[in-house]
Design brief:
By secondary structure, the protein is of the alpha/beta class. The chain contains 27 helices and 14 strands. The chain has an 8-stranded mixed beta sheet, sandwiched between helices. Helix 12 links the parallel strand 8 and strand 9. The protein is globular.
């Protein structure tokens, strides 16, 4: 096989896999709830490990190159078809009807990953002498795949991007087979059909989502971008990622008689505060904007989604909304709330944060729980610092997750030197028709005045709301114990974790105490995280022992313990890489203003510069322990410095334009990525030179399995210790990998 054909085949396979992965994350975020989508991605990504195992277990000898070419071409062909079949089948069923159907969707999604990594494992095994160049191409294509997928998500729908992944994935057939072979002609035909279909489907969606979350779509009128799917519903409203709903408000001259207004729970602060400047974080369709106007406030809005602002409120529904977002007292910015307020020089009478969460995988794709930097101690410090002397911070949240806001406020207030905290808080409650408890939390820098307290009570009484906490009133709710002795209350509360969370561990919604007993009973009290960890641990263990159980002939391969040490080495690389990757992604979520920017910039930079590291590793001798020592020490030093100083660099440059922050983030990520990219090809090359190339697919499988397992372990560690510690642990894991490579040949190199 010519060098160019092999290189192009690896490049387009890796490119397709990452395009498929990124678009799959976005796709599952719409049709499944966050914890289930997170489970689905983790299970699907285990196809990486399965692909390596299949190659290892099925090939126990060297085979002719023409046979390899045929197997690779066939694998690429079936891989492409499997993406199309996954899309067609998953769109025809409602995955929320049963756990069995959800599992079927996950299995269908895992098949392309399995086939794609059968291809890569076979290439790495067969051409181990070229591993440094091939792994460079693999990572280069993967990095470009991330960037390409995110960019075109703003142009075409995610459905069409999945089809595009299938087109890219079949290209290797053209490089591996003769031009007029059946495979090549069939590949050309499939590509032509799929290209035509993308054009048709983009203009008039033939293939689109029918079921989102647990409900059937009302309309097919939808717009995609890199971090959301916006649908228009009847009566006129906006559905975000199939679950979060915001009505389209209408402004007219008779605003006081508007049918949307009428004592909404979230409007209390507007009614209590003196007319002035209001900031609404996440205004959506304008309901809170309209309410603020009705109380004679001037409104600034920070809305993260440009589709809602530009395509809907300022275009399609400009007249329907009464040109609300063109009102002279309304100024809407397209910005993430934390980024906006951190750069704002203004003070506000009211800062309003309504229910703005979509519960979709937008923060970091498959690598994160759905968390938000809106609900951290540092966030509250910024909110309180931007209030006027009598200003009010108001948040509306469900009772099940709202109580933690108290601890966030009290921790932030203490750091700002605010006193008399028990006099600065009010909580008002509403029970809806489904017996769901919704609370409005009001916080101030200074104590509520008697006039404000009377206004809160009057508003609550007029609208049949209950006051859960009000300074100076004796009301029998747990909020009184919580607010008057928060440390003791949090310590005594065994059913919820109500301690404050920070930007370094922003797991506001993870409010279940970590209980490892839940592993044994399969508890879902933590959103299934413990069960997922147990399942991935078992699957990872199987990746190690399955080859020993299936064929007796494999047992002889590890009698000298070398294989065990090599497996531990590549498993350590999987853990360390993901620990550092996840930490950097989280560090830059707030910095880069949109979660998808952090995910795409960090992941693309990691893959691209790791690829350059792989290429540069040609200058190192894989047989000498000093080669590994130099690289590992570099990784550890960088990781150690980042763990303790990265937040200071971010804080000092956060006010820069986004293009400069992207550049800074890329440079920061590039340094550890370059060195981390050297470790795997060095190990593979060492195996080839030691006549152990036959276990490369097994090592690839273990590396992939530990990478997926690491995503869950990193979350647990971050919840307890924070991502700075996770980053440091990742660097330490590379030191552990160094020990295993030293032991692999009896400590002799």
């Amino acid at each position: 096989m010519s060098k160019n054909n092999l290189s192009l085949s690896v490049f387009f396979t890796a490119l397709s896999i990452l395009i498929f992965e990124i678009s799959l994350i976005r796709f599952l975020s719409v049709i499944l709830y966050s914890n289930v989508a997170f489970l689905g991605i983790s299970v699907a990504l285990f196809g990486v490990a399965i692909g390596g195992l299949i190659v290892y277990l099925s090939l126990d000898r060297d085979i002719d190159e023409w046979v390899i070419k045929k197997i690779l071409a066939m694998t690429s062909f079936v891989y492409s078809i499997s993406i199309v079949l996954f899309l067609i089948l998953s769109l025809q069923i409602n995955p929320n009807n049963s756990l069995l159907i959800q599992f079927l969707v996950f299995v269908l999604a895992a098949i392309p990953f399995t086939l794609g990594n059968i291809f890569l494992s076979l290439v790495f095994r067969t051409y181990s002498q070229k591993i440094k160049q091939l792994y460079f191409l693999d990572l280069l294509a993967a990095g470009l795949g991330v960037a390409l997928a995110v960019l075109i998500m703003n142009i075409i729908s995610t459905i069409n991007i999945l089809i595009l992944a299938a087109i890219v994935g079949i290209l290797p057939v053209l490089f591996l087979q003769k031009k007029k072979s059946r495979f090549s002609l069939s590949a050309w035909l499939i590509m032509l059909i799929l290209f035509i279909f993308i054009g048709i489907n983009q203009i008039n969606p033939v293939l689109d989502i029918k079921y989102s979350k647990d409900s059937r779509e009302v309309l097919n009128d939808s717009i995609w971008n890199s971090f959301s799917r916006i649908s228009l519903t009847e009566p006129q409203g906006i559905l975000i990622d199939g679950s979060a709903y915001t009505p389209i408000a209408k402004f007219d001259s008779d605003i006081l008689n508007n049918e949307m207004l009428g004592g909404d729970l979230a409007d209390i602060a507007f009614a209590v505060a003196e007319p002035g400047e209001v900031l609404v974080i996440g205004p959506g369709g304008g309901k809170d904007v309209l309410s603020a106007l009705s109380y004679n406030h001037r409104v600034t809005g920070a809305e993260i989604n440009p589709i809602i602002v530009n395509d809907i409120m300022r275009d399609r529904y400009r007249e329907r909304s009464g040109e609300l977002y063109f009102h002279p007292d309304v100024n809407i910015f397209i910005a993430e709330g934390r980024s906006f307020i951190s750069q704002s020089q203004d003070s506000y009478n009211v800062i309003n944060i309504p229910l703005v969460d979509t519960w979709a995988s937008t923060a970091a794709g498959n690598l994160m729980l759905v968390e938000s930097n809106l609900y951290t101690v540092e966030a509250f410090e910024q909110y309180l610092s931007h209030l006027t002397e009598d200003g009010i911070l108001t948040l509306t949240r469900w009772e099940q997750d709202g109580a933690r806001l108290i601890s966030l406020y009290m921790e932030a207030a203490k750091s700002l030197g605010i006193s008399d905290l028990e006099k600065n808080i009010a909580v008002v409650n509403q029970v809806d028709e489904n017996n769901l408890v919704l609370n409005n939390y009001l916080f101030k820098v200074n104590p509520f005045t008697s006039k404000e307290l009377e206004a809160i009570q009057e508003y609550s009484h007029q609208n049949d709301y209950s006051v859960f906490y009000l300074p100076g009133k004796e009301i029998d709710t747990y909020y009184y114990d919580f607010i008057n002795d928060p440390d003791q209350f949090v310590e005594n509360n065994k059913t919820k974790t109500l301690y404050p969370v920070f930007d370094d561990n922003p797991f506001y919604f993870f409010q279940t105490p970590i209980n490892f007993k839940s592993f044994a009973v399969g508890s879902n009290i933590d959103g299934g995280l413990s069960s997922l960890l147990l399942m991935l641990f078992v699957m990872t263990l199987l990746c190690i022992i399955l080859p020993l159980l299936v064929f007796d002939k494999n047992i002889g391969r590890i009698k000298d313990k070398r294989s065990v040490y090599y497996l531990a080495y590549f498993g350590s690389l999987g853990l360390g890489f993901i620990f550092i990757e996840m930490s950097l992604i989280q560090k830059f979520v707030l910095y880069l203003e949109k979660p998808i920017y952090s995910y795409s910039v960090v992941l693309a930079a990691l893959l691209l510069f790791a690829g350059l590291g792989s290429l540069s590793s040609k200058k190192l001798d894989s047989q000498k322990i000093n080669s590994y020592l130099q690289v590992v020490i570099s990784i550890f030093i960088v990781g150690f410095i980042y763990a303790f100083s990265l937040k200071y660099l971010i804080n000092s440059t956060i006010s820069l334009d986004i293009i400069w922050k992207i550049l800074i983030s890329g440079i920061i990520t590039a340094l550890p990525a370059f060195f981390m990219g050297m470790m795997l090809p060095l190990g593979f090359h060492r195996l080839g030179q030691n006549n152990m190339g036959y276990i490369i697919p097994w090592c690839w499988a273990v590396n992939g399995a530990f990478s997926v397992l690491a995503t869950i372990i990193a979350i647990y560690l971050a919840i307890i210790f924070g991502f700075s510690v996770v980053l440091l642990i990742g660097a330490i894991v590379y030191l552990v990998a160094l020990v295993f490579i030293y032991l692999a040949d009896g400590g002799v190199s």
